Sequence to fold (301 residues):
Amino acid sequence: MATDTRYKPSSRSGASHGRPRKRKNPLGVFGAMSHIALVIWAILIIGPLLWTFLASFKNNTEIFGDPITLPSSFGWDAWGRAWEKAHIGQYMINTVFVVVCSTAATMLLGSMAAYVLSRYTFPGNRAIYFLFVSGMTFPVFLALVPLFFVVKNLGLIDTHLGVILVYTAYSLPFTVFFLSAFFKTLPTSVAEAAMMDGCSHTRTFFQIMVPMAKPGLVSITIFNILGQWNQYLLPIVLLSGNVEDKWLITQGVANISTNAGYEADWPGMFAALSMTIIPVMIIYIIFQRQIQSGLTSGAVK
Fold:
């Protein structure tokens, strides 16, 4: 008599296959706590910004009497006063001019210096690199007094050119530090092929390496724009009260804050603050993906 030797799964095995497996929580307790911390951090950041924007539509009574309520009406009177009476429009134009020029000079000089220091070997290479990096450890306020006399001796005090040169000098250390590490991640075979085809060092840099380093260049450009736009100590030292028409946006907002103690135009001050914040937020929102890709591409390559 033949016996059936085919494999028959046991009831225990079938039950185990039919039973759904429990998935492990990839986040865990620490992941949940990190998400809660991020939510709290977002509220702490967005809350004051939203309150500042809404306060620009209120009057003094509503700001101090009902600080957490919505404005009774959304009028643009405070924005008009801040733009015309407080000259925020003129200060914003001055700031855009200074930041554009200083950022362009920083990126041009910083990218060239970082490329040479990261791709070429010559005596004093590391010394020059560490000299740039050491500039990041030097606090700005310690150099205000000697910096004032240096700019004054050059005849550039109370001028936008003096501010542009100082902005460029103080932005170069971090720019060189960031781009040096980024240029090291780029493949050398492309540059060698371009040199073999007859490209000069200058042409290889501008036509080959700069397009390849676009994510890093965009990231550091945005960082420089944000840092220079919010700078306050350097403009207040280099642009005195005698040239009020050349002031930058931070000086204009500080002037409104000082006069608010006498004129009590708090909505105008909050409107000026909103005008200062909104352009920076727009720039960051537009280039958010480029910033993230620039910060992570060096680690991925």
